[in-house]
Amino acid sequence: MIRLHIFPASLKGTPNPSPLCVKLETALRLAGVPHRVWYNTNPANGPKGKLPFIEIEDQRIGDSALILYHLKERLGVDLDRSLSDGERAQSHMLHQMLDERLYWVLLHSRWMDEANWRVTRQCYFGGLPFPLSLIVPRMARKQMRAALHAQGIGRHSAEEIYELGAKDLAALATLLGDKPFFFGDIPTLADATVFAYLVNIAGPELPSPLKDAALRHDNLLRHMDRMGELYAAKRQPQRIALTLAA
Ligand SMILES: N[C@@H](CCC(=O)N[C@@H](CS)C(=O)NCC(=O)O)C(=O)O
User: Fold this and answer.
1) What is the 3-state secondary structure (H, E, C) of the chain?
2) What is the CATH number of domain 2-241?
3) For ligand 1, is residue 20 a contact (CB within 6 Å)?
4) Is 18 in the pocket of ligand 1 (CB under 6 A)?
């Protein structure tokens, strides 16, 4: 049985505060892959120092994309089975846009916006005892600021960052059009991934120009609801709360 390690569901309005965790869990549910969810509060426990990661037999694998490649090779799990080569290429590019750009816009909106930071701090660090509750969030925010700067997006003004995010969302809305799913009538990995981001942008009560941009696309919101129903319908029974020692 695969063990899926993800953050606890600590942010109201989304199944998980991490879009990468939602993406992987949704993909496993859609593909009907039996797994157990382990709530893990310490990304350092993962082989890449990040969540999500999985344990499968004797192996620990990190990174949502690498995990999905691995499951395809090892277990034949392929949500994109119905896609043509061209559609697979489009899906590949969609994933890069979401994971390598929109992801950073979302991080900016949560960690750098002062009002949202209060919610983010509570979500990730709310359980820490004093004085760690003072020290750790401050350090983590400093590291996040440095990561945003190193990635490049942190060098832009907030206005520019949100403009980039709005363009990504507009591209998604155009690609989806009036289809139920990104590549027609069957949900694929792209749908799991877009759902993961949309539900994290539009779901929580974290106001931002990014959320405003998402709310302008009715077709994306309908897609989020459709995928939310599928996500709930394909729920797996066991969930185990766990905090591994660092
Ligand atoms: N490329 C990785 C990214 C994973 C990632 O960035 N996870 C974040 C949460 S969304 C994390 O664990 N951050 C904690 C840290 O960097 O210490 C994937 O697709 O899984």
Assistant:
1) CEEEEECCCCCCCCCCCCHHHHHHHHHHHHHCCCEEEEECCCHHHCCCCCCCEEEECCEEEECHHHHHHHHHHHHCCCCCCCCCHHHHHHHHHHHHHHHHHHHHHHHHHHHCCHHHHHHHHHHHHCCCCCCHHHHHHHHHHHHHHHHHHHHCHHHCCHHHHHHHHHHHHHHHHHHHCCCCECCECCCCHHHHHHHHHHHHHHCCCCCCHHHHHHHCCHHHHHHHHHHHHHHHHCCCCCEEECCCCC
2) 1.20.1050.10
3) yes
4) yes
